[in-house]
Amino acid sequence: MSAVDISKDLENATLVVSSEFAAAPERIWRLWADPRQLERWWGPEPYAATVVDHDLRPGGHVSYYMTGPEGDQHKGFWRVLEVEPPARLVFEDGFADDAGEPNDDLPVSRAEVAIASVDGGRTRMTITSTYGTTAELEQVLAMGMEEGIRAAVGQIDALLAED
Amino acid sequence: MGETITAERADAVFGALADATRRDILSRAMGGDLGISELAEHYPMSFAAVQKHVAVLEGAGLVRKRADGRRRVVTTDMDGLRNASVVLDHYEELWRGRIDRMHELLDEDGLPSPDTDTPDQEDRT
To answer: Which domain holds residue A43?
Structure first.
């Protein structure tokens, strides 16, 4: 395991992951900008990622699929928002349907990648991921409980008023 | 971390919550005594369609169904809903794995590449 700093903000459904690398920012940028490099680390084990399109420009798309151990395929896409080599990359990451078209009914997350050189020729990369649907989930929880309690109290009041 | 969540479960939960009708069903079913047909009255869709939404929620572990006479009663599983908030833990694992693989990939930079850097003396003759 390499040294990774993690911070989680459940309320805002945000995860910040940061790590320092013994390489120049340009080399770290290539992990994202070279599709052959990207597919070597993107897929969670045991899934292998294959990058199909890779247009790393604002407004551009990256499309990929992940192949599972049983040959099952899962398609995904990036919508590229900001590109500043080798310092900054912002994109949305979501699921795609079988035809490879973005499926916005499924959760879409947003990732901000910041790459900065630090002392000794090293580089720190910080990834801030925001998962909108977790926020929705928390919202459902909070809203549902509040409304549920209010409704229950209202019913009791109504019953008592009948007496 | 005591709680873990599989990628499959996270996807099921996300998929279930991605739909506004299903989120509404969750809110209504928190009271715990609504039959599917009573639920269906709230939505401009068929009983079968509502039943399908309930099945998706049930599959994600967010509601439970039980029989009360001839009624099928739906109850929101509050524990299931709370557990769902550990999805961030799942993403933490995902990104830890990715960072590890990035480091491994960079470690390879110092090694001679098998297809380009190997001098082949035989070819020179």
So the answer is: 5-9+13-131
Q: Where are the domains of chain B?
A: 7-83
Cβ distance of A151 and B31 shorter than 8 Å: yes
Say what the ipTM of the complex is: 0.79
What is the tens place of the pLDDT at every residue in A56-65?
999 999 999 9
Class of domain B7-83: mainly alpha
3-state SS, one letter per residue, for chain A: CCCCEEEEECCCCEEEEEEEECCCHHHHHHHHHCHHHHCCCCCCCCCEEEEEEECCCCCCEEEEEEECCCCCEEEEEEEEEEEECCCEEEEEEEEECCCCCECCCCCCEEEEEEEEEEHHHEEEEEEEEEEHHHHHHHHHHHHHHHHHHHHHHHHHHHHHHHC
Task: Kindly state whether residue A90 falls inside one of the protein's structural domains.
Answer: yes
Residue B42 touches chain A, beta carbons under 8 Å? no
* B3: contact with A, CB 8 A cutoff: no
B123 inside 8 A of chain A by CB:
no
Partner-chain contact B95 A17, CB within 8 Å: yes
The model scores a pTM over 0.95? no
* Tokens describing residue A8: 């989680």
- Is residue B4 classed as helix, strand or coil in its secondary structure? coil
